[in-house]
Structures are given as C-alpha cells and as structure tokens.
Design goal:
Layout: H1 2-11, H2 18-21, H3 86-111, H4 125-133, E1 140-142, H5 148-153, H6 158-166, E2 189-190, H7 199-213, E3 219-224, H8 231-242, E4 247-253, E5 256-257, E6 260-261, H9 262-265, H10 274-278, E7 281-286, H11 290-307, E8 311-316, H12 335-343, H13 347-357, H14 363-386, H15 405-421
Helix pairs in contact: 3-4, 3-13, 3-14, 4-11, 6-14, 7-8
The protein binds thiamine diphosphate and magnesium ion.
The site of magnesium ion has 6 residues, from strand 5.
C-alpha cells in the first residue's frame, strides 16, 4: 500500500488507471477525469441535481412476492413449474409432514415435563424443504434454530433429533445444549447457537474461505426477520457484498420476533428491500410455496457459485406455533389470524393439493402415511426416553485441552456432594 500511495503522490491528481497501479481489489474506482463537470466523490456513482428532494424511505416499496403455485396448489405460470419428479415431490411431502409430526410429539413431551424446552416449525415447512432441496449435499448450512426441516431433508435421523432434545447419551453435544440446538458435521450443518444473528458474520467468513478454496460450494445462512435487526446482520451483509462471497442469506419472515410483529420491527419494505442498499441481489418469495422457494434458491445457488456473488432471499411465511414452549402467543395475536394461515394458506396442504391434482396421492395414502410417520416418531421418542443421560463428568470436560485446577476442584466437590446427598438425585438415569 505504501508503494501505491507514493505512486499516487508522484502522479498527483492525474488520470490513473487501476491497471497501472495493479490494485488487487476486485472492483476499482472509475477513471479519474477531473475535466468533466461530474461528481468525483470516491463513494458515489451518481449525477448532480439542482432540485432539493429527499428520497422517500419506501422508494423501493412493495417488492413483489414470487410464487409458482397458488393456494389451491395450481401452477400459475407453466414456464415456472420446476417439473420435479414424483419421487422428489413425495420426498418433499414426507419431510414436511414428518417434521410436523415430530413437532407435535416433542411439543407434547415438553408440556408433560419430559424435556425442558422446544420450538415448533409449524407453517414454515415449505421454506425448509424448498431451500434444502435446491442445495448440494456439501453446501454448508448455518441455521438460527427454526430450520429442523433442512436437517431432516438431508437425512438426519429421528433418533438423533430426539437424542439432542433429550440430551441423552446419543446426543453428540453430550446434553450440554438446550433442546433444538442440533448440529451435524457429516451433514454440513453448523451447530445452532441461541444468541441471535451471530451465525450471520460466521457464515460470511465460511463463504469467504470457500471462495478462496475455489470449491463448488455455497454457504446458506438462515435467520428470522427479527434477527435481521441485529448489528451482526449489517456486518455480515456488507462483508459478503464487498468480499464477493458465495453465500445465500435466507430470511424466514414469519411475521413475528417472539411477540413483536413486523409492523413494529421495521419501517421499510421488509428485509428484501435492504438488499440493494448493501449491493446484494435480492428476491422476495412466497415461503408457503415450496416450488417458489426451490426455484429461487436453485437459481441463486447456481449464480452464487458461478459468479462468487451473495444473494438475499426473503421468504414470506407465518409462524403458526407459539415462539417456543416459553411463550403463549394468544397474548399478542388473535386466533382468527392464526387459523387463517393454518387452514387457508398452509405449505403442506398446498403441496398436497398439487399432488392430488397430479394423481400422485390420495386419501388412503395420506391415512397410511400419517399412521406410519407417527409410528416412526413414537419409536424414536420411546428409545430416547429409555437412553441414559451422559455421565456427569461431561459437565467438566472439553472446554480446556488439559483440565485446569479450578475445574478439577469443582468436579471433586460435585462427587463429594453426591456421595453424601446422592439419594436425592436421579443418578440411575445417568451413565455410570
Ligand atoms: C442477541 C439476542 N437477543 C435476544 C434474544 C432472545 N430472542 C430469542 S428468539 C428472539 C426472536 C427472534 O425472532 P426472529 O429472528 O424473527 O425468528 P423467529 O423466532 O420468528 O423464527 C429473541 C428476541 C436472543 N436469543 N439473542
Ligand atoms: Mg420471525
């Protein structure tokens, strides 16, 4: 840089081409032509005007919502039909409904005090499955916490979902995380962490590394519209744009950040409207239309890899369930509102209508599948209940390579305590 500065000083304010300076930046400043009566500010690429006008905040307003099928499952424009095979559509449907069944059982399990916490994915199944199906298996996923369907589509077994929620000996996280904080190295799904939006700059860093490796991969980063209000979202978007990272920012706009509705979260046109401000190619899609999500992610993925470009996809959907088991959404929204999405515009029933109209599915198959799917979930659930909890010593390991003295002392004091008062603890449920 010092050499470049010296060269610039020597050349004064004359025209200097990027090639002369051999700058390594992907994009360099336009040619400096001081003779013209044009703005020369390095940070702008616009013309002068002589009329005072403020830009209205909603100058980019009403970004349209891309969809492929209507609420009755009919393809709106045949040219946009992804023409997926029956087998693939059935996989979509099986995953979406299996997720729904798993949610019901784990939600009930929490209500009965069997697990400590849970978050359902009701109503957002289309965003998970449509996006997961459009990716390659090795594409790296950073999730927020409400994307279990992505992991399920990739083949994460029911037993593993259950083991994590139960924090039993089958949980790779050894019971140290709250339920729904899944992760899988084999399936390229980075472990969930609760502090909102931290995954966004991390995902951008991973995408930058992938770009440097020149691998045929992208990163997809999921987040809620609420998390998009965090500073980390800004940092992530800007780094991704300026470093030309192959990343797909996938925003699930489900209408709420716990009890705060979108009408109180932002004054612009949702999250997609922010994209152009950062230099991100952006699209808004109907998240309850699994084919629209699939098409948008497929095309964004193709271009992200080919051009090393970041994309922003805002999937409009609705959180039908409570935020989590710690929330009661009847305190801040009406039953009618929830019922509308549950009964009139549900991603699962839209896909089912599509399958029925193709004669790929009927009532009998539906009944048989529901029964089978429930049985599979119940079996995994019963197995998880029977498994022991990880050995208590796991509380003290894995943070330091060598256990420091103060942690050893804590471990010893736990065992001294248990020697005297062990009968008051359910030690039988733990590995010995
Ligand atoms: C940094 C931080 N602040 C606050 C919270 C508490 N919190 C957990 S989820 C949530 C709402 C997030 O809403 P959104 O991003 O829209 O995701 P959704 O739950 O709707 O899927 C909040 C405020 C948190 N986990 N981390
Ligand atoms: Mg939300």
């Amino acid at each position: 840089m010092a050499a470049v500065r010296a060269l610039l000083r020597g050349l004064g304010r004359a025209t200097v081409s990027c090639r002369t300076l051999m700058l390594s930046h992907a994009r360099c400043q336009p040619e400096f032509t001081s003779l013209e009566e044009k703005p020369q500010f390095p940070g702008a690429s616009a013309e002068f005007v002589d009329k005072l006008d403020f830009i209205l905040p909603n100058v980019i307003s009403g970004i349209p919502i891309y969809r492929v099928m209507d609420r009755q499952g009919q393809i709106v424009n045949p040219a946009e039909d992804p023409q997926l095979s029956r087998e693939m559509v059935l996989k979509f449907y099986h995953t979406m409904t299996q997720l729904n069944t798993m949610d019901r059982i784990l939600y009930e399990s929490q209500r009965q005090g069997r697990i400590s916490f849970y978050m359902t994915n009701y109503g957002e199944e289309g965003t998970h499955v449509g996006s997961a199906a459009a990716l390659n298996d090795r594409d790296l996923v950073f999730g927020q916490y409400r994307e279990a369907g992505v992991l399920m589509y990739r083949g994460y077994p029911l037993d593993s979902f259950m083991a994590q929620c139960y924090g039993n000996s089958g949980d790779p996280g050894k019971g140290r995380q709250m339920p729904v904080h899944y992760g899988s190295k084999d399936l390229h799904f980075v472990t969930i962490s609760s502090p909102l939006a931290t995954q966004i700059p991390q995902a951008v860093g991973a995408a930058y590394a992938i770009k440097r490796e020149n691998a045929d991969r992208v990163v997809i980063c999921y987040f809620g519209e609420g998390a998009a209000s965090e500073g980390d979202a800004h940092a992530g978007f800007n780094f991704a744009a300026t470093l030309d990272c192959p990343i797909l920012f996938f925003c699930r706009n489900n209408g709420y950040a716990i009890s705060t509705p979108t009408s109180e979260q932002y004054r612009g046109d949702g999250i997609a409207a922010r994209g152009p401000g950062y230099g991100l190619q952006s699209i808004r899609v109907d998240g309850n239309d699994v084919f629209a999500v699939y098409n948008a992610v497929k095309e964004a993925r193709r271009r992200a890899v080919a051009e090393n470009q970041p994309f922003l996809i805002e999937a409009m959907t609705y959180r039908i369930g409570h935020h989590s088991t710690s929330d009661d959404s009847s305190a801040y929204r009406s039953v009618d509102e929830v019922n509308y999405w549950d009964k009139q515009d549900h991603p699962i029933s839209r896909l089912r209508h599509y399958m029925l109209s193709k004669h790929w599915w009927d009532e009998e198959q539906e009944k048989a599948w529901r029964k089978k799917s429930r049985k599979m979930v119940m079996e995994a659930f019963e197995q998880a209940e029977r498994k022991l909890k990880p050995h208590p010593d796991n509380m003290f390991s894995d943070v330091y390579m060598e256990m420091p003295a103060h942690i050893m002392q804590q471990r010893e004091s736990l065992w001294r305590h248990l020697k005297i008062y062990g009968e008051h603890y359910p030690l039988d449920h733990y590995e010995k």
